[in-house]
Amino acid sequence: MALSGIQIYKKLPQTNCKDCGFPTCLAFAMKLAAKQVELSLCPHVSEESAAELSEAAAPPVRPITLSSNGYEFKAGNEVVLFRHEKKFFSPAGLFLRVYDSETADVIKEKVKAVADYKVDYVGIELSWDGIAIQEDGGDYAAAVTAVREVTHLPLILIAGPEKLEKVIPELDDGKLLIAFADGDNWQQMAKLAKEHGTALAVQADTIDEMVALTEKINKEGVTDIVLSPSQRSLHGMLTANTTARRMALKQTFRSLGYPVLNFPGDAANPEMETILAAQAIGKYGSFIVLDHFQPETAYPLLVLRQNIYTDPQKPIQVQPGLYEINNPGPSDPVLTTTNFSITYFSVANEIESAGLPAWLLVCDAEGMSVLTAWAAGKFDSERIAKDVKRFEVGDKVNEKKLILPGHVAVLSGETEEELPGWDIRVGPREAVDIPAFLKQALA
User: Fold this and answer.
1) pTM, two decimal places
2) 374 partner at 20 to 30 Å CA-CA among 11, 26, 323, 407?
3) Measuring CA to CA, how many Å separate 283 from each of 15, 269, 280, 313?
């Protein structure tokens, strides 16, 4: 049962020492009750009170980390249903599933495609997170060996307890997730998970059955539990995921306070698989297992995940500064924009792909896009002039031509006043038109 802020306050030292970073113990207690801080911030709480407050301090969705030889994947630790309330902390993991009925060469080829896949998105490197190995009537140990010969990405092992018992001791390289514990085998699976320190996925058809299983397994000493609803349809998966997450967050129902494992890979075709994966990313899936890996679908799923799991209050930013594109010289033009990552990469990519040399002055606009920053007073003539001087742009060019984004043409006059001796030009509104502008207007 979650404690209220007042109940937590009564168990704190009540000295208002401010060591936790808050002005009063009551303020800290309210934040702790809202799951917005950790109890460890209070250095003076007694051991007895700390034990009593552990329920309030623990996140409503238990954090679980899979690891393997330097690779890590973190799930859980969520505190809100909707990202605008705060933010989501643990991006959904994408796992490719291989089967032990496939040949070692086929498995290696599939796994290598995932292991080698790295893609840049606005300066952020994106990749898939791990491999799931499914029992399917073949040599399970050989399938696990084939995977490990290619990569040490985190693993989900999906097999009966007899086969898992043979392969887990051979994988002494981190924390695994094993699946599934159900109404028939939960005692064997719980014993395996406890003995080898793995996380354990629990599968059930209904929420009531899921609760009964997690409670029994928890009593056996297994705390790293993952929920795996048996539903595979869009409606069924959405209902199961949302019900579990809502109960965990809104009711602090610990028996459902675990990450969720979904299987879009069980879809009838690759198209529906991608749709199910997209839904799982957006609606509370933590481990998402797919049977197909294709760059044309892998990339949009990664971008969707990145967009959902960024902090809505902190836009993706690049470092302010003067950037060189295509080895510019002293006579090449200087363009300016804000440090919103998508804006920067849109402009930079257009110039670079056109093969045109140019300087790009990225101004500190607190990560906002051009129009947003201008409207908020974060991108004006004073800030532009300040960054021109701060990054010593004038020392790098002979012809002092500064090109403003077309959306802030209104700043041209004021910028001329702030930068005497500079020729202030107004560029196009859209990044796609920049190459033509540089070729024609500045020829």
Assistant:
1) 0.79
2) 323
3) 42, 21, 5, 20
CATH number of 5-57: 1.10.15.40
Q: Which residues contact 93 (CB under 8 A, 6 or more apart)?
A: 73, 75, 129, 130, 154, 286, 287, 288
Average pLDDT for 336-345: 93
Single out the residue of 296, 295, 284 nearest to residue 93, CA to CA.
Answer: 284
The predicted-structure confidence for 45-79, as pLDDT tens digits, reads as follows 988 888 778 766 678 899 999 999 889 999 999 98
Q: Is the pLDDT of residue 38 over 80?
A: no
Mean predicted confidence (pLDDT) in 221-241? 96
Tokens of 21: 């970073």
Question: Which residue, chain included where needed, has tokens 């300040």?
Answer: 386
- The DSSP element (H or E) to which 48 belongs, if any, is helix 47-57
CA-based end-to-end distance of the chain: 71
CA 247 to chain CA mean position, Å: 23
> Per-residue confidence at 399, pLDDT binned at 50, 70, 90?
confident
Structure token digits, residue 172: 């002494």
Q: Which of 114-128, 261-275, 299-313 has the highest mean pLDDT?
A: 261-275
Mean pLDDT of 370-392: 95
* Domain boundaries defined on the chain: 5-57, 64-308, 321-440
CB 290 within 8 A of CB 305: no
Task: Respond yes or no on whether the N-terminal peptide bond of residue 73 is cis (omega within 30° of 0).
Answer: no
Looking at domain 64-308, its CATH superfamily turns out to be Dihydropteroate synthase-like (3.20.20.20)
Transcribe 222-284 into DSSP letters: ---EEEEES--SHHHHHHHHHHHHHHHHHS--GGG-S-BEE-GGGSSSHHHHHHHHHHHHHTT
Residue 52 backbone class (left: φ over 0; alpha: ψ -120 to 50; beta: rest): alpha
Query: Tokens 């995977």 — which residue?
Result: 147
With pLDDT > 70 as the criterion, what percentage of the chain qualifies? 98
pLDDT at 443: 61
126 three-class SS: strand
